[in-house]
Amino acid sequence: MIIQGGMGVAISDWRLAQTVSRLGQLGVISGTGIDTVLARRLQDGDPGGHMRRAIARFPLPQIAEDALKRYFLPEGRQPGAPYKLLPMYRHGGTRSGEPLLMLAAFVEVYLAKEGHGGPVGMNLLTKVQHPNLALLYGAMLAGVDAILMGAGIPRDVPAALDAMAEHRPATMVFEVEGLPPGVSEHLTIDPAIYWEGAPPEIRRPLFLPIIASNSLATMMARKASGRVDGFIIEGPTAGGHNAPPRGEMQLNERGEPMYGPRDEVDLAKIRQLGLPFWLAGGAGSPERLRQALAEGAAGIQVGTLFAYCDESGLAENLKRAVLAEAAEGKVSVRTDPRASPTGYPFKVVEWSGEGAAAKRARVCDLGYLRTAYRTAGGQIAFRCASEPLDTYVAKGGTLEETEGRECLCNALMANVALGQARADGQNEPPLLTSGDDLRVIGTFLAGRTRYTAADVIDYLLAGVR
Predict the structure, then answer these.
(1) pTM as predicted
(2) Contact assessment for residue 324 and residue 23, using Cβ atoms and an 8 Å cutoff
């Protein structure tokens, strides 16, 4: 009945997903940026040896060996030393990043599934296009049970899962700005090239697209490339990226997008599709679970309550600071229409703790949220509205598109204590995202200063047991 949200970069890490799955619900790991996460954990010395334990089980030992040789530092980084960066993705170039993506997804799913028989899912962002096929294949090698994908239209994913379950080549349409009419680009992976002998048997996971409209649900149910197993219906109160309002963007007095009746999903029409669905966004209460079940849902997806529990990957100092202010009603969550370089509205936590108001330099050295575009010479290149202004304009972007943008890639790494050390001696500051439920989390805390994932599940299920 409860799906734990796949949040941020490693907020929903293997420890949180494992805990939730052991408790009988669907634990979900976040696959976003997981290759950088693995590389940085190794550069920090892999405390506890968890990464190396999982890497040792990866069925392609040469890839595992190469990753350890390249990134593992037994004593960790020297104080103030920067993390070694991964090469950013290039279209049509070498597949140098593909093996590490496969390995990173395998490691996170393997650890989440270790020692129990509960189901584990992986969450990916459709708009972060280049890594997804390799991440899906790596997760499948670890036995992932479900794939959750939103922030776009993942219509090619079902067929890709079918193909990779048989180690066949898989393809997705590659969205590129400025392509001529009738021209399309694709991303591909050929799993067979990695195996000298017979590859292991793997199974196709369930596929649960995250949708915010009836039209998208209907399209995915009837016109996707293969089987869809259910839906997560996410409202605009959810954390992270939100779907933009339908129609012309209008802002309230706080500068937030205004949502109306056109943005509400008609659950009666969803029920007619005959597939299970879970409600998400502002669903983190026993009352919302009871309501969801009464409306025909299989359950709810919950993010914010899990994001601040003991087992989540959020840095400990940030958990304590935000929860302390939230308990006093001092935390605010603002839907920022400009922060994300993707153009999607993005929820930003406003609090007064360490790093809350830090200014960050414009830099694009991770590149997950870059947009692909066709150059005047017919090549495919990448740009990001959060990169240095001169660089972005030189690539055909406009200054107006850069206003208010933040480097989410680096900020989200900082949220889990993997922020880059910069040349000026400063560490990359955090930028927190949460759903609107954070505003009322004080009711759930009931005087506590910390809590566990088990506390969250007990709270949510109290009204239906």
Answers:
(1) 0.94
(2) no
Please list, in sequence order, all residues whose beta carbon lies within 8 angstroms of the beta carbon of residue 293, skipping any fewer than 6 positions away. 1, 299, 464
C-alpha to C-alpha distance for 418 and 44, rounded to whole angstroms:
9
> Biggest alpha carbon distance in the chain?
63
User: Among residues 380, 391, 392, which one has the least CA distance to residue 93?
Assistant: 380
Whether the per-residue pLDDT at 147 is higher than 90: the answer is: yes
Cα–Cα distance, 212 to 214 (Å, whole number):
7
CA atoms within 13 A on the CB side of 17: 30
Residue listed under structure tokens 């296009």: 129
Q: Is the pLDDT of residue 374 over 90?
A: yes
Helix (H) or strand (E) run with residue 172 in it: strand 170-174
What is the C-alpha separation between 57 and 382, in angstroms, rounded? 35
Q: What b/e string do you get for 21-39 counting C-beta neighbours within 10 Å, with b at 16 or more? A: bbbebbbbbbbbbbbbbbb
**Predicted confidence (pLDDT) per residue in 86-132, tens digit:** 998 888 755 669 999 999 999 999 999 999 999 999 999 999 999 99
Closest CA relative to residue 412, chosen from 60, 56, 40: 40
- What pLDDT does 355 receive? 56
Residue type, 301: Q
Q: What domains can you pick out in the chain, each with its CATH number?
A: 2-313+448-461 (3.20.20)
Which amino acid would we find at residue 306?
A: F
Q: Which pair of tokens denotes residue 400?
A: 């107006």
Task: Return phi, psi of residue 276, to 5°.
Answer: -65, 150
